[in-house]
Amino acid sequence: MADIPSVQFFGQMPPQISSHYTTFEDNQNVLIYLNYFEIDNQMLILLSPSPIEYSQQSFIVFSSTIRPRYRVSQKLMISIDQFKSIVSFNILLFGDLYLTNKTQSQPINARNFQTFITPNPLPQINILVVPGVYSINFDQIYEFLESKLALKNECIQPQPKYDILVYTTNPYRVCNIQFQFDKTTQLIDYFYYLIDNHIYQDINEIQQIFLLDNIKGTLLDFLQGKNQQPSAYFIQLIRKNFSYNTQDNKFYILQQIKGFNQIHQNADFVKIFCQNCEDGNKCTLLSSNNQQIFFSGQSSLFKYPLSIKFMDLVSRTFSHLICQLLFIANAQNATYQIDRLANIDRIEEAISCPSFNPQRNYQNLEMLGDVVIKYLTSAMLFEDNTYKTENSLSSARVRLITNKHLSGIFGKLKLNTMNFKINSKKFLNHMMMIINEQEDPKLSQKQQADIYEALCGACYIKNYEFKDLMDFFKLTKFEFKGKVQQFYNGNSLIDFSNNSQDTDNDNDYPLKKQIQKRPFTEILKFNQPFKEFEDYLGCQLNNIAEAMTVDQFERLEFFGDAILELLVIVNVHKECEKVYYNSRQQQLCREGKINQKLLLCPGMLHTAKISLLDRGFMGTMAMYHNFHQYARNLSRETQKDLNKALKLLREDQFNDFRKINQYSLQIPKIMSDLWESVAACILVEHGWEMVVKIYGELYKPYIKYFVDNISLIYDFYQSSGSLKS
């Protein structure tokens, strides 16, 4: 009965990985692309059927820093015979590494050579590995094939220490030499070797496991069973299969190499972190503490034709490199498609779902994209005076930013995303007949909308220019018709390089320090002159009456809500990335040395909205800066409520951030509405520069405090139920 081909799930594979190699001149030559990787002071060369571009300078896999030597794969034309030898080399090499080769020759179920040079309806991983440093070492390939296929076995020579792999032919096993001995070597010497190499703890443990009372005599006599009592089962098997040439003077105890998927046995394959590698002892295919041993005389042992260093390097990194290449190639293809529309950085992050990369995925960019889309659509709708009320404006905006609408735009881009994590530990041998499940897990409508928003966020933060995103809108057929240039010029960035309000370097809540210098007002006044308020703000506002009058500021409040959300989220994200989202922080997280919450997770950006944009915070800020004194048409009931709230505020010391948000129930909502409407009034008349000058300075100490204490604030809101787990 024929073997049923194995199934390996990789999802939609990019052509750089899965396409066939192109032949020329009547199939006499083959075009290949060389990908050079510097890994732990070694070079590994992988061949791909199409060029791969590397935007990253390096990446880390199990504590090994991997640096692509060239930004783009190097093109090379080789003969069809050379390519055949490379394919045969890989089939035999990976058969040995996966411990599936039963003989030295090519296995029956290996892939046919034609599957590498002809189109395949079911894409396969067509990445090949070759020996070499600056070029392919064909001599080493031919030597390997000659040893394996022509059965040209090279006997080993006795030496004090072996740093080579060896193999036996009957049965076929690739092994490392554990212990070399001769006819006079004492059994006790071998036992001390086992103890010194931490395979066993002491002689008593060895005697119990080996079922020995007497440990006198030679090791050779023990393995032959001469003058020995019955021993452990695995020793009996060794004795049963033991045969040697009487002319042999040297003998070897062997251990079979680890299988390909036994490397990094105790590693975290989600974080791609291995404690053994981190401790400086890079994982190896050599079985150092395995208690299963084999025995061979010198005449039955042959030198393996590849070095331990090369075999270790391939075993330790190949499958994880494939995962990385899948990601890099998908990002490259997405970049090509997006580059036709806009010049966007961080494409890799924007197309990575949380299930693929828990540390760096689209979620933060999605939140940025969400707020900037909200701002631009709000600005566009605000331009249209046919929308008279906040409700009509909000309803129109909702239609533009629903998941259904945004996912429809994303679908037309036809981007492949990284939406599931490939566990490299479960890789099957790609040189065997393996069927690849081609279809990606389907993205939900929300995921598609999120990725479109992430692309928008990446587009905006490249230069923090609205024009970049407006151009992207146009090219992706997003319905945007904004015309008032003042709304779309400038940017929302606050200058944190000189924070004069925090010269004492303490970590007190900003409002605590501010009320020590200027407390909340003692006297409750209303309907004060607008000129006084304009002087306080530092700018003249022709529409201040509309912004400060109840029942008239609805449109401005609608616009101001989007303005302040953009101002806060963009600046929190930008400052947080400097501290919490650099490459070192990400590596420490992968290694388990810091909690993942110390990276900038999306929940933390959501926390910024709760902490700095809720009714309690904005209402308190409006009260502290006396917005209520200049408001118009406040009802008597509202004035009474403001008086009660002001008394509470004057009594509060605001020792930490927890207090301010609790005032969302005590301070009338109208105060947070005024806080937003005045922001919109400033932007409408003076643009973003003045918004940043006034509101940016007001928010600056609070954003800085939030960034410095983000983990503490995040934990508080999560434990209080304000954040979803």
Automatic annotation (TrEMBL):
GO terms, biological process: RNA processing
Highest taxon, organism lineage: Eukaryota
Domain RNase III intervals: 318-464
Annotated GO MF terms: ribonuclease III activity
One Pfam family it belongs to: Ribonuclease_3
Annotated keywords: Hydrolase
Record protein name field: RNase III domain-containing protein
Organism of derivation: Paramecium primaurelia
